[in-house]
Every structure is written in C-alpha cells, then in structure tokens.
Amino acid sequence: MKTYEVGDVLWIVSSSRPGIQAVRVTEELIKKTMSGTNTSYMVESAGSENKYYSLEKINGMVFKTSDEAKTHMLSSAEKAIDNMLTSQMTLVHQRWLKEKDKETVPVEKSDEYAYLDLENGQKAKIKLPPELGDLK
Known about the structure:
- It is a single chain.
- By secondary structure, this protein is of the alpha+beta class.
- The chain has two domains: 1-65; 97-128, no CATH class.
- 28% of the residues lie in helices and 38% in strands.
- The protein has one helix spanning 66-103, and strands at 9-14, 20-33, 36-45, 52-54, 60-63, 107-110, 113-117, 123-127.
- The chain has a five-stranded antiparallel β-sheet, covered by helices on one side. It has a three-stranded antiparallel β-sheet with strand order 6-7-8, with no helix packed on it.
- A hairpin with a 2-residue loop joins β2 and β3.
- The longest helix is centred in the middle third of the chain and has 38 residues, at 66-103.
- The mean pLDDT is 84.
C-alpha cells in the first residue's frame, strides 16, 4: 500500500461512475498486532465539511497529483472511444459495406473477351469492342 502524509491532497478517480474527487488525509492510523502492522488513512472530502472516510473504503483509484489523475482519465476515455468506434465500424462493415462489395463485379480480361463473375457463381463471357481492347 502507498504511504501518505497527514495533510496530503489526494485525487480519487471513481471506479463506479465517471468523476473525480479531491480528498485530504486527516489521520494516519497504525495498528500493530502480533500478526503485523497495518496502516490505514482517514480522509475528508473537499466537497463536504466534517465528513471523514476511510481511504480504503472509497471505491476508486488514488493519485497523488491532479496531473496523474488527469492522465489516467484521458487514457480511459480514449480507450472507451476507441471501443465505441471499433464497434460501430464493425456494424458499418457488416451492414453496408458487405452490400457494396456484392455490387462490385470482378472482371477478367483476355484478348477480345471479358469474363464477369456473376452473383450466382456463373461467369459471363463478353466480347469487347475494338476501342476497349486496350483495357486488357
């Protein structure tokens, strides 16, 4: 667990909903037992007076600076946007670009003829006019 000093301002990025909360460490509690030492912290929120919370019970990621919290939030937002775009691009390809691909008919050319692949799997042989002969 990270260590903090009494008076430190910490930045909490919520795990349950989008948002950020500034808190100040008000107490450092050190409990020594036969099985070891446990350190916990009490914090107060910048948004509410005289309300104290156990830092370990707050649902979110703790950052020591606002810049670290901002970087994390921007990274998370970018990942979420990338996932949304990927999802929509997949739908566009499945729904609309597949239909567009079906409309494109591949053409093979040889000498005087062109061969078209039809949708039903058959090939059509078409004699090219002399002025189109240079498209081979």
